[in-house]
Amino acid sequence: MSTPGRDDTAAALNQVLSEVIDGVLDVKQAHRRVPEAHALHAELDQLFDDLKAWARLLADQDQALGVLPLASMPTSAGRTPPHSWHGVATDEEVRRIVGEDLDRLGQYLAAALSDRPDDQVRATLAEVERGVLAHRRALSDV
């Protein structure tokens, strides 16, 4: 059985990176709909910061593979947010939508990890996966 090549690994990384960028857009919109006094607001702050950090980590892995980050996907400016956030949203709606985003990101992470990437890429993906799971738990606790 052959191991996946650099192109396969880069494609899997870019799928995860694309989902992370979508997450940044959605969390930014969700954050605007939750009052600052709510615990959910603080969780969204932390998730937003982590998503940006994960995007940098994934882009760094792309560069290490010799791939230009974002070369095969639209930037955040060229994207449509995954959800249309019209009007007021309850905390429960925000939790549900952001939770769905995290679940989808988790699926892409699992697929990328199943492609048996090299140790450095695996470590990066595992770090993001741990963060996603932690935020998923935190969303249900706030």
Walk me through the structure:
The chain is mostly helical and 142 residues long. The chain has a single domain, classed as Ferritin, core subunit, four-helix bundle (Ferritin). The chain has 4 helices and no strands. The model has no long low-confidence stretch (mean pLDDT 87).
- Secondary-structure element sequence? HHHH
Helix content: 55-70%
Level-1 CATH class name: Mainly Alpha
Assess the beta-strand content as a share of residues: under 5%
Query: What's the end-to-end separation, in Å?
Result: 46 Å
Q: What about the largest sheet?
A: none
| CATH architecture call | Up-down Bundle
| Rg on CA atoms, Å | 16 Å
For CATH, the homologous superfamily is named as Ferritin, core subunit, four-helix bundle
Mean pLDDT reading: 87
Number of strands: 0
- Can you tell me the residue ranges where pLDDT is under 50 for at least 5 consecutive residues? none
